[in-house]
Amino acid sequence: VLPGVDFNSTANPIFPLTVYFKEDGAVTGTSYDPAEKVIHLMYDSTSALPDFHIADEADSVYHEFGHALQHAMNETVLESPVASFLDLYPYNRDLDSVLEALADFYAAAVARDDAILPYLSANFPSLLAANSRTGTQYKRSMQNNLVFPDAYVRNAHLDGRVVAATLNDFRKLLSGDTLRIPAGCTTCTQFKLSAANIVDKGTAYDRVLSLAYSAYEGLNTKSTFFHYATLLGDECAATAWCAAAEVTDALATVLDSRGVKP
User: Fold this and answer.
1) Interacting residues of 31 by C-beta distance below 8 A, sequence separation 6+
2) For a tag on the chain, would you pick the N or C end, based on fewer CB atoms within 10 A?
């Protein structure tokens, strides 16, 4: 589904990819390390379930592998948050948030389920803080009504929820759902595509995943949320299934409603 990535080639920058799991309280936490090409899946001994660890949760594995895919597609951008700590680039929180959003959406697309990452709520309080709530629950869920600028809290994982929800809104429209537009859109309250442009759920996930990661390839170390939104619009206009006027209008409506707009 993802453009321009040959996962069978040993020349791919993410290979060989190593996964460590059951790292009790590992300093690196649950993460993808581009320098070492390693996925760390932390075991939290403070968990409410003593025998539970993140490697048991498909959502988490998919999310971290999503970061590895980003490395394969655009090395400079994926490495820029780490490079910023070495003073190679100024830290770009917008860009880091887009990386987290894309990894969240990748997890949802693989699982075919937008209720991702709920394991954080019950099992990993050490990874959470009071301002990480999505609605009334501790979840980094794409099922939210968060909009920019109100939801901009200057935290990459939390700001990424808005971008991930934007991609998921577009996926829901393609799946035939009636989208209840968040408060950020003042001209509309509901939106639905005509039957001619509706596809099955799996196809909708795949199309938005491909669109989202195609736009990601055009990012650079200075990219903002708004640059990413512009790239999404450009990719949509150049893609056969997306270029239909109603579909491009739907994407523009979603971007506008979430405040992630060019």
Assistant:
1) 39, 40, 64, 67
2) N
DSSP 134: B
Q: How is residue 140 written in tokens?
A: 């980094």
- What the block records as the tokens of 99 is 């990386």
pTM: 0.87
Cα–Cα distance list, 73 to 60, 77, 219 (Å): 20, 9, 11
Question: Would you state the structure tokens that stand for residue 203, as one six-digit string?
Answer: 């196809």
pLDDT digits (tens, 9 = 90+) for 192-215: 999 999 999 999 999 999 999 999
Tokens of 109: 């697309």
Q: Could you count the other beta carbons within 10 Å of the beta carbon of residue 221?
A: 16
Q: Is 145 exposed, middle or buried (0-12, 13-18, 19+ CB in 10 A)?
A: middle
Q: Which residue has the tokens 């300093």?
A: 27
- At 74 the three-state DSSP class reads coil
Ramachandran sector of residue 12 (left: φ over 0; alpha: ψ -120 to 50; beta: rest) = beta
- Helices (H), ranges, the chain: 58-73, 75-85, 93-111, 119-123, 156-174, 201-216, 225-237, 245-258
C-beta atoms surrounding 187 within 10 Å: 8
CB 216 within 8 A of CB 102: yes
Q: How far, in Å, CA of 53 to CA of 46, rounded?
A: 11
For residue 40, count CB atoms less than 10 angstroms from its CB and return exposed for 0-12, middle for 13-18, buried for 19 or more: buried
Q: Taking 60 as the threshold, does the pLDDT of residue 127 lie above it?
A: no
